Amino acid sequence: MKRIHPLSSLFTLGTLSLLLLLLTQCSPKGTASDSQSHLAQTSPSISWEYGQRAYTHTEKILEFGPRPPQSEALKFVREHTTAELAKHQWVAVEQTFTANTPIGQRTFTNLIARYQPSGTPSHTTWARKPKGVLGAHIDSKYYPDQVFLGADDAASAVGAILEIAEYLHKSSPQMAKQLELVFFDGEEAFGDVFDLRTALFGSRHYSALVQRSYPTKPSFGIILDMIGHKDLSMILPSNSAEPLVKQTLQLAKELGIAEDYKRSGPVLDDHEPLNSIAGIPTIDILGDFTKKSWWHTPEDTLDIISKDSLSQNILLTLELIKLQLESHSP
Ligand SMILES: [Zn+2]
Description:
Layout: H1 13-25, H2 38-42, H3 49-62, H4 72-87, E1 90-101, E2 104-115, H5 122-127, E3 132-137, H6 151-171, H7 173-176, E4 179-184, H8 201-213, E5 220-225, E6 234-237, H9 242-254, E7 261-264, H10 271-278, E8 282-287, H11 307-327
Parallel strand pairs: 3-4, 3-5, 5-8, 6-7
Antiparallel strand pairs: 1-2, 2-4, 6-8
Residues 1, 141, 153, 188, 296 line the site of zinc ion.
């Protein structure tokens, strides 16, 4: 992850200049300590257990070590994720494919999960037409010469989705039934060049399948990436679906956490194929990697992960899912 698009045909120079101008005018984030996050001060109703459990999931994922595509560690992480989902009646299937990469052919496996409360036959579960997709990348970037764990990029997002799956099972099974969870393989680029030939393998493959074979396309998608770091700063890239961006900013305002979420210029991430190939209006809720010195370095470890940041982004995501499901109900 993630390269700001070069001046592509998608965006005019004027638009980009304006976005860059807006970005550079943003004031730097305050230095309040993690325990004094805005949400803690303004939203006493939030369950801080969200973050605790997502943190524990993140910690567990990191124990398997670096998990680049086709590694044993990634296979174990997928098995672990499948087992954790099953505890809360979500069933996961693997979507395996091969693709050419800058370092040769590789095998990738996405993990797709749906809610299957006990007694539901499997064919019913997979015949459902999900209204929304919630996704994160499960691989860590491949480095031949360093130990890269990718705690926030993006084990923390996988941990957050596991927590959301548990929460929905316990509190809102009707919402759970309307979602598809996707853990994308091969989001990260092989090497330094990040483009549609070197990266986003899993989301491109999934999006092509949705486009070809889903009788009804989901109405919205949410991608989480780098959502658990201390001193939280998040961006909402402009090549996300605008109605979702507007809703997210409005929700952040209502929750008293608006300062942590800014619009940015376009970014290549898993939301791009969902929007452009699958035709699912999708938002990327992304950590501002341009401000983080630990991004794509061996410092992206559990030390930079905050339970408060996780709680905040989980709450925001749950509220956004709720709004979207309501707005797409008949
Ligand atoms: Zn990355």
